[in-house]
Amino acid sequence: MRTHAQAVVIGGGVVGCSVLYHLAKAGWRDVMLIEKSELTSGSTWHAAGGTHTFNGDANVSRLQKYTLDLLRELEAFSGQSCGIHANGGLYLASNDGEMDFLHLMASRARHLHMETEILSVREAKKFNPLLEEQYFIGAAWRADGGHCDPAGTTQAYAKSARMLGAEIHRFTRVLELNQRRDGTWDVVTDKGTVHADHVVNCGGLWAREVGHMVGIELPVLAMEHMYIVTEAIPELEGRDREFVNTTDFSGEIYFRQEGKGALLGTYEKACVPWSPVKTPDDFSMQLLPDDLERIAPELEVGFKHFPAVARAGIKKVINGPFTFAPDGNPLVGPVRGLRNYWVACAVMAGFSQGGGIGLVLSEWMTKGDPGSDILAMDVSRFGSFATPTYTYRKVVENYRRRFRLAFPNEELPEARNVRATPVYGRFDQAGAVWGANFGLEHALWFAPDGVARQETPTYRRSEAFPIVKAECQAVRKTVGMYETSNYGKYEVRGKGARAWLDKVLACKMPRPGRMALAPMLSPAGKIIGDLSISCLDEDRYMLFGSGFAEEFHMRWFWSQNPPADVTVLSRASTLTGFSISGPNSRALLQKLVRVDLAKDAFKLFQLTETAVGLAPCILSRSGFTGELGYEVWTTPDFQVALYDDIVEAGQNFGLVHFGGRALSSLRLEKNYGSFNKDFRPDYTPAETGLDLFVDFSKPEFNGRDAVLKERETGPKKKFVTMVVDADHADVIGYESIEKDGKPVGYVTSGGFGHCVGKSIAMGYVPAALASDGETFTINIFGKICTATITAKPLHDPKGLLLRG
Question: How confident is residue 239, by pLDDT bands cut at 50, 70 and 90?
Answer without folding.
Answer: confident
